[in-house]
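job 3f2a | input accepted
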Amino acid sequence: MDTNLEETILRACKNEVDYSSRFEDKIISIQKSAEEYFKTVIDINNDMNYSASNRLIFYMDRNSKLLEDTTNFTKENRWLNADHIVEVLISSLGDFYWSRVTGKKKILRFTLKKNATRTDGFSTSVLQNKTRIDEFIERLGFQTIPDPLLWKTVPEIKTDLEGKPATVFDIIFSEI
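job 3f2a | predicted structure (176 res):
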């Protein structure tokens, strides 16, 4: 693993969460650029309670295609009608992102999520869409954190809720 990357990430772990309108504007700019590029509708989850990041949410239909921006679905309808969702977490602590694909299976009134970090069980077209989204985010100057480092414990920083040593993921993407 690149020790320079690890040092950069561990330094970012000491940054303060950015709740400013500047960060919000940055996320909106990414959303608009991505909507234009992919010709789709992307939602933002900007609830930063217990989070150091905002989420961009991409929706795929049953044919594993990104929902076109011509659909007149509300946010709730996009969620209900999507077969797969790609969530991209953009950190306010540095130019880092993490993404996952979620498969949905409707049973009665419940929606079950398939583990998003594994690729087994997802079609090639779903994974290709996730790759295209990742490549787009990387072209904007963001980088993903490799798994071994993402789950590394940072002993000097504790989680607020459980008082346990926090992982890089806890710090960079979810406020501890």
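job 3f2a | DSSP finds six helices and eight strands in the chain.
job 3f2a | closed
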